[in-house]
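User: Before I run my own analysis I want an independent prediction to cross-check against. Here's the chain; please return only the structure tokens and, at the end, one sentence I can use as a sanity check.
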Amino acid sequence: MTPGRFFTDERDEKEALFSLLIDDDHKLPIPSRSNDVNPRTSAAPIPPPVNGRPPLINKSSRPSERPLAVPKPSSLETPALWKDYVPQFEYPSPDHVSPGIDLFNLYINHPIHDLHAATICIFEILYPDSAFKPKKVRSPVPLVLRDMDGMAHAANGSSYSGAFKGQSFPNVNHSSELVFSTRYLTGLEHHEDPAFEIRGVFYHELTHSFQYSAENTPGGLIEGIADFVRLRGGYAAKHWREDPVGKKWDQGYETTAYFLDWVDKNVYQGLTALVNEWLGKNKTYDEARLFQDVMPGWSW
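Assistant: Structure tokens:
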């Protein structure tokens, strides 16, 4: 940050901070703010993507707002838009005894409903209209509590017949298993809000189940999209820091999540859904081609 620079408002400061995330080869054009003109129209017009539509997913982030407890549902309803894509979930009995299992069952009374509700939110963000083809994961998707190190992960698998062109093509079949560490769950005993934390991990790991990934996609982008969904779902972890100083936009996790959130609000609405779509339609990741296809006309 330039010594002696003063910021007229919080947004000035945030724009300057986020500009530090991007290296010289991938400089993001910050829209002009002269005379308080709308930032979406004050710079060069934002060109539409090749398919002619950015999706409208610009929901407000609520990193400090905690959702109410999820009540027991009378039924698990799926919007018609995704009825062929949202899988069934199951919670098999754990194969061991652990304080972490007891804690999980105490705070997550209806895990199947929680998983279903998180999936609907994920689809709203990554597949907001009928022009997007969601990743179809085979039912059932089990939630497994396992005695292991780490926190949680989505164990994904795929198979295909014929030539592989990308994960979203119809010749590819997907499966997923959501795995939680009971050691991690045991460690939540003194957490101020275990239910909130567990549901936040639901959002992150289930995003991995349903997001696309081309070969050689940077891990930071994959993890950043997952935390972006968690952020937009209202489950940002309290230890997350929005301050990007000294970090790069594709560093991953909350750093990339807040960057994607800022871009979606200030530069290009719906970018994350379009990036995810591109990752499903292409076999191999190529950053230059990705942004040329998704945001033609911009100089990155």
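Sanity check: The chain has one domain: 10-294.
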